[in-house]
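Example S7 (structure tokens).
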């Protein structure tokens, strides 16, 4: 592609026409491919998360069904049912539920996917030429929709189906041989000062440790993704802030042609609100490859050697020094735009600048987030190459005030003053405008991630409600005994609600710990795809507080309904429960 492009360039130049710019985009890649890749990465991550959480929900639901029907299994086995028949019965139930769920999910998923694809296409400015979903995708969804629930239900069904008649008939919701042997029960026996109801709630929480772990996993995963989404938003903002703090100027003005530096400085002194002005040289350059072809053209910025308006984080090597002549500093975006050049600090490269080939020595690589591929040299080194010593193509201004209103006013005054002085302005932009545009681009992805986390939160809440229902169901006779010896409805409600709250608190602690690596992973992948560099790690403590409130409310709601159903039963009904 470079060879053909250079031939076309030479042909156009030979006809007497000027060439403003040459760009070689990656073959077959849309300009917004990075944003699309970020969205697809998030969708795939949450699709996998939905699959895992849904599997946990299926396992919990089947466990609840088996806990409710454990005595029926015993009766069936007592009159001749075999284990294989019981397994087929419950696997058949799961399969029927899977078919019904698939019949609802498949058309809804296709409809929502097409709407979302159209929205993304409009947002990223491309046309959908085909909205047909391949047959293999439909078959894959059907296979997953049928197999995953069966796999998730396999262990609880197998365990319930193999139970003996004696164990099923004598089931009271608690394994009597384990009473007093668990470590938690031994510890609770020493903490009598906390009161019997609270100790009973703690003991009930850890009674079924496998079920507790499954519930904590779903809730903690939902909380971790929620906090990771908030952390990603803060990380994006923090990374962009570092980028704009590296540019220590407020307004950037490009001229239509180079003008004498003295004229530029004299004109900028008359602009109200400007406290500092630096005239910079800038031009376009292209890298010469070993085969004699040239790469994409990029901006070569040349601030004065004594400039203090740039302070980029240095990834390798060093920044420019005042006495550097042929020294060149490149941005990480420049490296990403030239992936096959294998350039590193210390190498010498050949750049084509204004039709001339010159050699430069790379002394450093800097991090310049959300910017086009750029390289930096001293003005004093570039001016002789371009033949524009004493001339500048742009000016950077530092203003006295930095708010949006003040910057817009200075921008208008700058354009008017420079035009009056006979300096034709090609473009001007304030750092506030640039930052706002970048933040609006990132908020789309962050908002999408926040919407996806709602799914995790809902699934986690359903998992907790299912767990609490099973726990109460298993202890129906215990509740009857407590009521028979004088326990009030309020005391029973308090015991069950405290148990739900403890599960919520444990899941919250797990979510906080899980959010740390999750946030780092999201920031690394998201930043590498969108900005060619990992985002700065950030942790938002507000997310921790918000999720604590959410999980406590969820715990109260999930625990109240099973608890209320239990206390509504009479003592006779509870003790006679089968």
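Recovered sequence:
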């Amino acid at each position: 592609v470079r060879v053909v492009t250079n031939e076309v360039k030479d042909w156009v130049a030979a006809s007497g026409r000027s060439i403003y710019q040459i760009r070689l985009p990656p073959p077959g890649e849309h300009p917004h491919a990075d944003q699309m890749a970020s969205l697809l990465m998030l969708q795939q991550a949450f699709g996998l998360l939905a699959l895992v959480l849904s599997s946990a929900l299926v396992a919990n639901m089947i466990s609840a069904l088996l806990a409710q029907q454990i005595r029926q299994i015993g009766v069936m086995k007592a009159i001749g049912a075999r284990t294989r028949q019981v397994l087929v019965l419950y696997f058949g139930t799961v399969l029927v539920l899977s078919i019904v769920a698939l019949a609802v999910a498949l058309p809804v998923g296709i409809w929502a996917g097409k709407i979302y694809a159209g929205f993304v296409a409009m947002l990223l400015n491309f046309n959908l030429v085909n909205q047909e979903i391949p047959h293999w995708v439909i078959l894959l969804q059907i296979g997953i929709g049928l197999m995953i629930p069966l796999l998730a239900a396999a262990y609880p069904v197998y365990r319930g189906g193999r139970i003996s008649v004696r164990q099923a008939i004598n089931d009271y919701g608690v394994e009597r041989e384990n009473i007093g042997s668990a470590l938690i029960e031994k510890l609770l026996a020493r903490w009598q000062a906390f009161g019997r109801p609270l100790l009973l709630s703690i003991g009930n929480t850890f009674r079924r440790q496998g079920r507790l772990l499954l519930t904590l996993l779903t809730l903690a995963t939902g909380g971790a993704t929620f906090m990771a989404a908030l952390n990603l938003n803060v990380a994006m903002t923090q990374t962009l802030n570092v980028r704009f703090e590296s540019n220590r100027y407020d307004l950037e003005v490009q001229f239509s042609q180079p003008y004498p530096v003295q004229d530029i400085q004299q004109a900028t002194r008359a602009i109200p609100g400007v406290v500092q002005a630096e005239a910079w040289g800038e031009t376009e350059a292209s890298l010469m490859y070993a085969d004699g072809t040239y790469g994409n053209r990029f901006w070569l910025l040349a601030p004065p050697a004594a400039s203090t308006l740039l302070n980029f984080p240095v990834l390798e090597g060093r920044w420019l020094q005042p006495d550097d002549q042929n020294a060149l500093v490149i941005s990480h975006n420049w490296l990403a735009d030239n992936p096959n050049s294998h350039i590193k600090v210390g190498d010498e490269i050949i750049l084509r600048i204004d039709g001339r080939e010159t050699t430069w020595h790379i002394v450093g690589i800097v991090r310049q987030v959300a910017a086009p591929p750029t390289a930096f040299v001293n003005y004093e080194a570039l001016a002789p190459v371009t033949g524009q010593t004493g001339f500048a193509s742009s000016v950077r201004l530092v203003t006295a005030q930095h708010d949006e209103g003040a910057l817009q006013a200075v921008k208008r005054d700058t354009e008017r003053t420079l035009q009056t002085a006979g300096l034709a302005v090609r473009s001007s932009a304030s750092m506030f405008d640039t930052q706002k545009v970048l933040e609006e681009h990132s908020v789309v992805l962050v908002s999408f991630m926040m919407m996806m986390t709602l799914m995790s939160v809902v699934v986690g809440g359903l998992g907790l409600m299912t767990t609490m229902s099973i726990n109460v169901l298993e202890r129906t006779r215990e509740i009857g005994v407590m009521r028979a010896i004088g326990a009030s409805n309020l005391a029973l409600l308090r015991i069950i609600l405290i148990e739900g709250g403890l599960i919520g608190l444990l899941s919250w602690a797990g979510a906080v710990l899980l959010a740390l690596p999750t946030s780092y992973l999201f920031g690394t992948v998201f930043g590498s795809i969108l900005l060619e560099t990992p985002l700065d790690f950030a942790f938002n403590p507000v997310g921790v507080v918000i999720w604590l409130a959410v999980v406590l409310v969820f715990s109260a709601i999930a625990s109240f309904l099973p608890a209320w159903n239990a206390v509504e039963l009479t003592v006779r009904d509870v003790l006679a429960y089968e």
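Notes on this example. The radius of gyration is 34 Å.
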